[in-house]
Input
Amino acid sequence: MAVNVAIIGCGLIGKKRAAEIAKDNEARLLFVVDIHQESAEKLASQHHCQALVDWTEAVSSPEVDAVIVSTPNHLSAEIAIHALQMGKDLLVEKPFGRNFLESKAILDAATKSKRTLIVKTGFNHRFHPAIAKAKNLIDQGVIGKLLSLRARYGHGGRPGMEKEWRASKSLCGGGELLDQGIHIIDLMQWFGGGWAEVYASLNTAFWPMDVEDNAFVLGKTLSGADAMFHVSWTQWKNLFSFELFGSKGSLHIQGLGGSYGQETLECMLRKLEGGPPEIKTFSYPDEDISWKLEWEEFKKAIFARTPPLGNGEDGCRANQVIAAIEQSNLQKTRVLLHE
Ligand SMILES: NC(=O)c1ccc[n+]([C@@H]2O[C@H](COP(=O)([O-])OP(=O)(O)OC[C@H]3O[C@@H](n4cnc5c(N)ncnc54)[C@H](O)[C@@H]3O)[C@@H](O)[C@H]2O)c1
Output
């Protein structure tokens, strides 16, 4: 049994997805599609599949079982909805549509389908080994009751970034909050059981663009934990830091490999008698295996017809939190989220 896949969008992420699928005996990459013919042809020749420029051809092909949407964000909802209408399983790279309304429209299309389709958001951070290990330790109760979460994530952009689709409100849907912030929002909802409220400040501090390059967010999770994060495109040295504090200890994730530095997890256990905690450090290789693990989990969900980790609802909820954060920033007030 093999799953037949079409990838729409042959940029940075489309190439990563194609590389993982091409290595997998239980998958066949049938089509790679890009509006730039050269990009599609180059990727197709690497992975021995067919190059197309028109995504509707791939999405309509009866041979295709699953569609991966890795285009700029303004195209995600239209392609995703069409794929669902054609009865395809679906992975949409984060964000799951440019905003909450687009997310809802994708979910509605899945609900209207005659059969249950597998719908996933590309939340590869859940598959980083340090993050997955932290989730495992939290679920085992190793650090006790979760009290608070704190994260920082960012990079310093690149020359000409203000001309990219990511810097355009209409093409992207938002700025750094929607770009890297959405991973933090998703991880915090995964660890903390959803967001209950947010208070935020968004700012375009440096880059000449019509979206925010910095977001500061304070909030609470549904489990009652306090949450705080800062995401930034003026973080001149790349940074990923995600920390969880519990009643018995804390977990500190640093780095994502590559330019974000070595991925490590420190587990600190509080001593009842006081003094410095016991520290155990887990270190992971530089290679980013999150794409491989996320693909494998999506494929398993397709075979088993079970919800994938980081599904469409998770993507939609993350966009709902972003809408609340944007509202809080505009109104300068705390915004409650109602599930
Ligand atoms: N999970 C992550 O950490 C992560 C990281 C980066 C990007 N992403 C997401 O992945 C998606 C793609 O980002 P990227 O960095 O690969 O962007 P990119 O600009 O590198 O690639 C997008 C590709 O889509 C192609 N394209 C544009 N219009 C098209 C059309 N009509 N039909 C087919 N192809 C078309 C472009 O030519 C380009 O090759 C975005 O949604 C982004 O938010 C996720």
Summary: The chain has a mean pLDDT of 97. The radius of gyration is 20 Å. The chain has two domains: 3-124, 125-290+319-336. Residues 125-290+319-336 form a domain with the Dihydrodipicolinate Reductase; domain 2 fold (CATH 3.30.360.10).
